[in-house]
Amino acid sequence: MVKLTRRLFFAALGLGALAAVPANAAELDELRVDWATYNPVSIVIKDQGLLEKEFEKDGTTVRWVQSAGSNKALEFLNAGSIDFGSTAGAAALIGKINGNPIRSIYVYSRPEWTALVTAKDSDIQKVADLKGKSVAVTRGTDPHIFLVRALADNGVKLDDVRFVLLQHADGRAALSRGDVDAWAGLDPMMASAELEEGARLFYRKPEANTWGILNVREEFAAEHPEAVARVLKVYEQARKWALSHPDELAQLLAKEARIPLEVAQKQLKERTELTHNKIGRDQRESILAAGLALQQAGVIPADANVEAAVDGLLDDRFTRDLTN
After folding, report:
1. Which end of the chain is less enclosed by CB atoms within 10 A, N or C?
2. pTM of the prediction?
3. Cα separation of 235 and 216, whole Å?
4. Which domains does the chain have, with CATH numbers?
């Protein structure tokens, strides 16, 4: 009998054997996965116990960890606290450039999850109005990247704006209290601020929102490639369920995020697309454009090879044969 090595496994994976399990697979005692309110598919998986069902026969324990933002997911991945983490594509790129040993393997959403937000009675109408103002932002996340690119695109220097570094929910609260002039928002908190307080999205650019990306630790992928394939099989099951059950999905998000149902519906129906799954050219172009813009703005070092970093980040081995 021919022994199925990891190299042969990946070859088989490329030919469509997504769920194949090599005979010499390393045992996996615990699978550590994040969930996040900005990743609706993860909520479905957690709520329905799909990973627990998939790995039950192996005796593998599934441990769930909530990520409050891309920055937290990247921290957990870098520390080895989780094996799979949900981030924005550009945030994952910054992590990769900074030495975080991850690979981006799956698309869980195409969102417009960030915009620049201000209070309903604010005199801020455009990005240029942020000069001399304070903006709440979560460093290392898509809203942070979105804000930096918006300032650069509109001729506003970073030093002209006071960044107030807060986690997303705290940023929303700071805007509500009037402690900051604006906020680089993130759904569902952003939708909540709109509906509950009349907050205004004064700058939107959907194409500058980088994709919702699932990342895996490189070490985990090397040691447990078959487990990666099985996790993505479960993600596909949950994503397709979410597409077929939009009302139930909104109810799940409302429950887990502790927000009104109408807020969850606004996020999902107006600004979240779940019809993608593969890592490919579209993700590469979007993340590369963000990376080059951030390099021009001085956020990424001038000597960093952004294109090489993107190529080292994106890994399509596990999704080549997926269908929508």
Report:
1. N
2. 0.86
3. 13
4. 6-111+210-313 (3.40.190.10), 116-208 (3.40.190.10)
